[in-house]
């Protein structure tokens, strides 16, 4: 049986309880359907990358989704129960990163469908001393 991370990163919840866990805001797979993140700046290049990355990390942390870019939340086996829930959250995080990008940058990085790889690409292209 697959597992879904609970609010405590060192423990897990079985996927049989996934739907009830999804309604818990502390679960990293929780997505509030009425909520959108508003970012005060868009990434335009190296000049504002450090500030942009701090803002995005804080936003992801506030939604309990930082693990999708730092590797502490990894993909379950695609055939495992709970994979679709993980995939939905993973996609949401991907768009949380793409959203605050200047449109001129989106084409060069949007081929990545994994938020962790996207985050690393952006760090390598625009960052100087950033650590997740």
What key attributes describe this structure?
132 residues; mainly alpha; 6 helices; 44% helix; Retrotransposon Copia-like N-terminal domain-containing protein; Copia-like_N
* Proportion of helical residues: 40-55%
The helix/strand class is mainly alpha
Distance between the termini: 30 Å
Number of helical regions: 6
Radius of gyration, in Å, reads 15 Å
Please tell me the overall pLDDT: 81
What percent strand?
under 5%
- Largest pleated sheet: 2 strands, antiparallel
Biggest β-sheet: strands ordered side by side in the sheet: 1-2
Multimerization state: single chain
What order do the helices and strands follow? EEHHHHHH
Number of strands: 2
Protein name: Retrotransposon Copia-like N-terminal domain-containing protein
InterPro entries: Copia-like_N (IPR029472)
Domain Retrotransposon Copia-like N-terminal: 38-77
Pfam family, one: Retrotran_gag_3
Short description:
The chain contains 6 helices and 2 strands. The protein has about 130 residues and is mainly alpha-helical. It has a two-stranded antiparallel sheet with strand order 1-2.
How would you describe the overall organization of this protein?
26% of the residues are buried. α4 packs parallel to α6 (115-126). The protein has helices at 18-22, 49-62, 67-70, 83-98, 103-109, 115-126; strands at 3-5, 12-14. The chain is globular and about 40 Å long. The longest helix has 16 residues, at 83-98. The N and C termini lie far apart (30 Å). It contains six helices and two strands, in the order ββαααααα. β1 (3-5) and β2 (12-14) form a beta hairpin. Mean pLDDT is 81; it is low at 6-16. A two-stranded antiparallel sheet has the order 1-2. By secondary structure, it is mainly alpha-helical. InterPro entries: Copia-like_N. It comes from Linum trigynum. It holds the Pfam family Retrotran_gag_3.
């Amino acid at each position: 049986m697959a597992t879904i991370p609970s609010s405590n990163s060192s423990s897990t919840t079985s996927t049989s309880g996934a739907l009830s866990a999804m309604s818990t805001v502390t679960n990293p797979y929780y997505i509030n359907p009425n909520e959108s993140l508003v970012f005060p700046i868009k990434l335009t290049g190296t000049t504002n990358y450090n500030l942009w990355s701090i803002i995005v990390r804080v936003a992801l942390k506030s939604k309990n989704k930082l693990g999708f870019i730092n590797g502490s939340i990894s993909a379950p086996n695609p055939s495992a129960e709970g994979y679709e829930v993980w995939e939905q959250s993973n996609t949401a995080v991907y768009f949380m990163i793409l959203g605050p990008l200047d449109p001129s940058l989106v084409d060069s990085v949007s081929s990545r469908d994994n938020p962790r790889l996207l985050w690393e690409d952006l760090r390598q292209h625009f960052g100087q001393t950033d650590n997740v």
